[in-house]
Amino acid sequence: MAFDIEMIKGxxxxxxxxxxxxxxxxxxxxxxSEKILYAHLFDGTASEAYxxxxxxxxxxxxxxxxxxxxxxxxxLQFMQAGKPKTAVPSTVHCDHxxxxxxxxxxxxxxxxxxxxxxxxxLESVSNxxxxxxxxxxxxxIHQVVLENYAFPGGMMIGTDxxxxxxxxxxxxxxxxxxxxxxxxxxxxPWELKMPKLIGVKLTGKLSGWASPKDVILExxxxxxxxxxxxxxxxxxxxxxxNLSATGKGTICNMxxxxxxxxxxxxxxxxSERYLRATDRSEIADMANxxxxxxxSDNEVYENPEKYYDELITIDLDQLEPRLNGPFTPDLMTPVxxxxxxxxxxxxxxxxxxxxxxxxxxxxxxxxSRAASIAQQAVDKGLTTKASFGINPGSEQVRFTADRDGxxxxxxxxxxxxxxxxxxxxxxxxxxxxxxxxxxxxxxxSFNRNFKKRADGNPNTxxxxxxxxxxxxxxxxxxxxxxPMTDYLTNDKGETFKLEPxxxxxxxxxxxxxxxxxxxxxxxxxxxxxVIIKPDSERLQLLEGFQPxxxxxxxxxxxxxxxxxxxxxxxxxxxxxxxxxxGHLDNISNNTLTxxxxxxxxxxxxxxxxxxxxxxxxxxxxxxYKAAGVPSVVVGDENYGEGSSREHAAMQPRHLGxxxxxxxxFARIHETNLKKQGMLALTFTxxxxxxxxxxxxxxxxxxxxxFAPNKPLTIELVHKDGSAEQITVNHTYNEAQIEWFxxxxxxxxxxxxxx
Length: 754
Ligand code: F3S
Known about the structure:
The chain has 754 residues and is of the alpha/beta class. It folds into three domains: 5-38 and 57-318, Aconitase, domain 3; 322-496, Aconitase, domain 3 (2-Layer Sandwich); 556-753, Aconitase, domain 4. The strands form eight sheets. A seven-stranded mixed beta barrel has the order 22-26-27-28-31-30-29. Strand 3 (90-93), helix 4 and strand 4 (132-134) form a beta-alpha-beta unit. Helix 3 (68-80) crosses helix 6. It is globular, with a radius of gyration of 27 Å. Bound molecules: FE3-S4 cluster.
């Protein structure tokens, strides 16, 4: 048993009381999401009603899940907190660092050879701090979470954007950055703006070729890639109750593509069936006792327009399969219109690859429905016109599907069975010929289809669809193939139409597996040694940042005055730098290299005031640091927008910057800077941005009086010796000022721990 039953009992034990209290404080019936949110307040029972889309609220999630790429820095930071164990049950899943090339066995061994130091580190650190470890090949994080950890009424965070997949089993599950995971694992409150609510009422029942994937492809078409921002999408209605738990997982998973905070379905019979099939009857029994609390109140279902900020209705009876793409997941085309639209847009209609898998669509049901299509081709003596690849979602799914003969028709069609991992979905695909950058089309059952995402080729037109449609299109080899109307011809000249897919929601014989790939941590991890090679390029133990000296900071030099947009990608680029995510010093060599210098409009070329010469931003920062000179970063509006990547705050701090002074911040980045012990400041008068000159020195003249709601004063000393003072604002509260004084939030936790 991988899940923590005592924790779940604890959540259910307080659910009724907390939800009832919230209802009386809020003074109206509650939606299911609100029930879960109010049941997970960090301070316990609700004492006030929070405004959706406005109030910032401290939550206490029940679990944390991390994938291998993001877990590295999260865990390196967590080690700084000085805690013997994580405060909540947590898991690590090795799924992103495995490249798909020739097939599961060889590819997996290859990944282990290439990334063993990262896997060994994650394994040892998990063992030490009581974290469940899922080995490479065990499966994709969200499928493994759905099978083992998701539970109705729970709340979790995960360091991956498709964490909302667990909403299929009634959980508020939110994708976050590593710094947030560290907070929760260290027992700190986790802050979130109270989300807005979008209701999606599903009527009718899916039939024929329509699948749960088509529901979310339709929603993405309606709401677009930004339409869900800051909101939880809550699905309900008789149509919702006609879906399987894994089908609901597919829908929730792709809520990330419309920017939603998360997506969720209420607890129902399908959830119960899935819990029992995955060996969690104890949870199903407890959930049955709480059914009224694991769904919205009846009044919400009767008058949804009163309780949701936005309401959409979709009739499942009318839904036909869709293909979304290319290059964006919200460009929705119903299969019956594809011929016309593909011709109009000159999309290449010959399909080169069909890929089934990813966290979105790799359940037993998905594979069995796609297999029913593949079997028809085998029976008629057809081969696939396109190449065909499958990534099962977990070893449990793969083993069971293999036992039940579900993989056989794929193998008969010469499909490659890749490792139970992300593979092509995250660009971990060594696709032959991709470097030629030829224009071509692929179809897949994944969630994202941005340029270059799957194979690095900017000219690959990727279309997102259901696994059964991928199978049909791979067989036909054409993007505009409509299996409901079009015929296929075999070598004997016989023509026929494919029958609609049939599949099993759950395996009749139950799930089975020989080795799930799970490693339970030891009870007492105090003796476990964390494995990091001293000369490793990819991993580096963190040293706590220096605490504040208690004096005003004087003589700080301008590192860069960034012009215009400066996102977390400009501050800490991704791409090839991903391999250094666990090595702060090495990844710091990309610090602000994408930011435009306001004085010369060039990137990665700033003046070193100590020598008068120009150099790369990281080099100049290192020169100041070596000389014991603090530095300051200046930026424009919405500085640090983009991802919640904590590296963007840690790197400048590591290179000796003490403050980031901007016109305005993206909120998450501002908080990340505070957590890393930096001064995150904004110009009181935005026009003062223009006063900053290339050779400026910054003297903080009243930092010793740093207090909430009190602006600070900086003296700017210009090259000609003239000086002027500016006021700068900040949003630090008492507790956050303590982070600054201690050198970082983690230093403070460590101090308190000691
Ligand atoms: Fe992996 Fe792709 Fe999901 S990268 S976690 S399979 S979105």
